[in-house]
Specification:
Layout: E1 2-7, H1 11-26, E2 30-31, E3 40-45, H2 50-66, E4 71-76, H3 77-81, H4 83-87, E5 94-96, H5 104-112, E6 123-124, E7 127-128, E8 131-133, E9 139-143, H6 157-161, H7 169-181, E10 186-190, H8 205-212, E11 220-223, H9 233-240, E12 245-254, H10 258-264, H11 270-284, E13 293-300, H12 307-320, E14 324-329, H13 347-371, E15 376-386, E16 389-393, E17 399-403, E18 412-416
Parallel strand pairs: 1-2, 1-3, 3-4, 4-5, 9-10, 10-11, 11-12, 12-13, 13-14
Antiparallel strand pairs: 6-7, 8-9, 15-16, 15-18, 16-17
Amino acid sequence: MKAAFVTLGCKLNYAETATYERAMMRAGMQVVPWQQEADVYVVNTCSVTARSDQKSRSEIRKLHRLHPGALIAVTGCSAQLRREEIQAIDGVSFVFGSDAKSALVPTVLSALGLEGPDASLPAHKGFFAAHSSGEDRTRAFLKVQDGCDNWCAYCTVPMARGRSRNIPVAELVCQARQIAASGVREIVLTGVNTGDFGRSSGETFLDLLKALDKVEGIERYRISSIEPNLITTETVDWIAAGSKVAPHFHIPLQSGSDEILRRMGRRYTTDQFLERINYIRERLEKPGVPKVFFGIDVMAGLPGETDGLFEQGCAFIEKVHPAFIHVFPYSRRPGTRAALMPDQVRDSVKTMRVKRLEELCARLHEEFVRSNKGLTDKVLFESTIRDGMISGYTGNYIRVSRPWDPSLIGKFVDIIL
């Protein structure tokens, strides 16, 4: 029997989908692309914006239209927040919210007559453990944290993924060793907010980094999505002292205006954000060493964001000078405080602001790449071939391409940028 998967949204979803795939393969199923005929299709949905919800529903309908006789199992954030709506879509067989992810594979296999003990999924006190490897088998995503306790005014993540939680350091080290044994050399630590690690185990994010640093075979770690107020001085100092952690940080800003940050319910000011960025640069950037890559999230059009506040935000972003900006328009989400705020911004205005921020991102990224010219860094080359070229990323996430040479796959090579 065959299974196919469609994944929308964040790296967490991709890591969780990979765990479903491995469990179904252990039960004897073959995983095929969603365009092919399969006995079951699993859709891992996203609900970060109204457009994400709409796309999730559209993908489900398309699958049923193309494969009307197949089972369709739906999970992910939209499945948690829009359960009844999704269950009512023609063709949907099962819906698994955030609290039922570990039941997805056993339920599907039972429906297909393939249930077996080897298909059990890793779960620990409400935490669905997951990791995935990219198709090139050189990089893996390891889920270290899930959920959020912040309840920002615009966000449904606490409703969709629950409270902040994690599994113990020792279990994550075991997963990292399994990843290393498969030949992967780089791990991206994923979570809703990786810096909040330790809520349910009494440990700290720095404890986790120190333990993972000792795993043989893994040569580089990347940290994804860490709140600025949770990047401690001790963590930065330890990274700077010579760890396997790459100079690559994804830090949500959301707005460069203190007034908008206050309305959002964020837990820092622009001054505090800039202080963290400057401290990381001060500790990690040295003469002749590649610059630190900072990716930031920025939202355009929160209710009450005037033209003046938007311009204030753009000026602050210029001051931060990140390497990349993940831009998205504010989306009115039912059940959030922001949905009830006055002064909702028109969609046409949000579209213009998004365009302006994307143009700023393109310029800042070009400047970042240019600032690294002539410096040497290690590139981990991937197996994908495009136009006769092999490519990979430096520690600070600059993509480098060279003429195709299969002997470079999965290897770290010193490259002059």
